[in-house]
Amino acid sequence: MFAYNSKESKPTMQNQLFSNRVGILATMHQKERVIAPLLEQELGIKVIVPQDFNTDIFGTFTREVKRSGTQIAAARLKAEKALDITGETLAIASEGSFVPHPSLPFIYSNREIVILLDKENNLEIIGEEFSLETNFNYQVVDNLENAEDFARKIGFPEHGIVIMFELSAKNDIKIIKGITTKEKLLETVNFALNNSLDGKVHIETDMRALYNPTRMKNIDKATHDLIIKVNSHCPNCSTPGFVITKSIKGLPCAICYMPTPLTRAVIYQCKKCSFSQEKLFIDGQEFADPSQCTYCNP
Fold first, then answer.
1. Residues 78 and 183 in one domain
2. Are residues 126 and 253 in the same domain?
3. Based on the number of CB atoms within 10 Å of its own CB, is 20 exposed (0-12), middle (13-18) or buried (19 or more)?
4. pLDDT band at residue 15, thresholds of 50, 70 and 90?
5. pTM of the model
6. Structural domain range at position 10
7. Is there a single domain that holds both residue 111 and residue 151?
8. How many domains does the chain fold into?
9. Model confidence at 10, in pLDDT bands (50, 70, 90)?
10. Is residue 13's pLDDT more than 70?
11. Residue range 166-187: mean pLDDT, rounded
């Protein structure tokens, strides 16, 4: 096993549930580079990555293995598998997705989650980051020049590339991943063009974390969100993970006082004892800008 050792660990008094416990990080794509230092410093967890842990069995971005279930379910399966093979009680896993933005369908977004699964205390806490900062992209090319143009667009060679092409009419797809040098790119594209059934090559960004610094930054942000949620304790039973479960719209307009689509309040709820609490004006604003009012601006 590989253990990530930080110079110093500073768990808060409130997080004795996790301090000095071993946490198994279910990854094969070097996510420990951003997740481990944060969990060790902020929560005191001794992060370990199991050797030869194959997360590809839960789904791949290149679609050889389809992810079964939701994004959260896939992350949970990774964490549970890591606990099964190590016999530990605390695990961390992450899962990413890339889909068109719900409000801007022509722009891709990246949703990253980091799940903390604690079997000893029957806890599941999930950090999340939803971002437009992504270089997720693909293109079908039939010449080297177009392939090089695509590579420049997605930030190659800092970000890796995947090449796919069809070898035969039997849907025999060749996939070459982890291309990170110009020499390898030229070699692979030329090989693919010469061997592709239709003379075309599918080229896309390698979205695995170790080949994608942009995605790695979003995993870092999701881990920060996880830590914030772990540090949010239930006022009733002190269990970590006292998080927002519902938003209530209707923040009043500053001019006409009519309710707007903006959030007026949120509901926090404890997963363990079910205690809930409403908090008004979560962003510190008691009134909405009139530009957001459907009455003042129909």
1. no
2. no
3. exposed
4. low
5. 0.89
6. 2-133+211-230
7. no
8. 3
9. very low
10. no
11. 91
Whether residue 189 is found in the same domain as residue 288? no
Which tens digit of pLDDT belongs to each residue from 237-296?
Answer: 999 999 999 999 999 999 999 999 999 999 999 989 999 999 999 888 999 999 999 999
With cut-offs at 50, 70 and 90, classify the pLDDT of residue 113: very high
DSSP secondary structure letters along the chain: -EE---S-----GGGTTTTT-EEEEE-SS-THHHHHHHHHHHH--EEEE-TT--GGGG--TTSSSPPPS-HHHHHHHHHHHHHHHH--SEEEEEEEEEEE-SS-TTSEEEEEEEEEEETTTTEEEEEEEEES-----EEEESSHHHHHHHHHHTTTTTS-EEEEEEEETTTEEEEEEEE-SHHHHHHHHHHHHHH-SSS-EEEEE--SGGG-HHHHHHHHHHHHHHHHHHT-B-TTT--B--EEEEEEE-PBBTTT--B-SSEEEEEEE-TTT--EEEEE-TTS-SSB-GGG-TTT--
- CATH code, 175: 3.30.1490
Say whether both 126 and 102 belong to one domain. yes
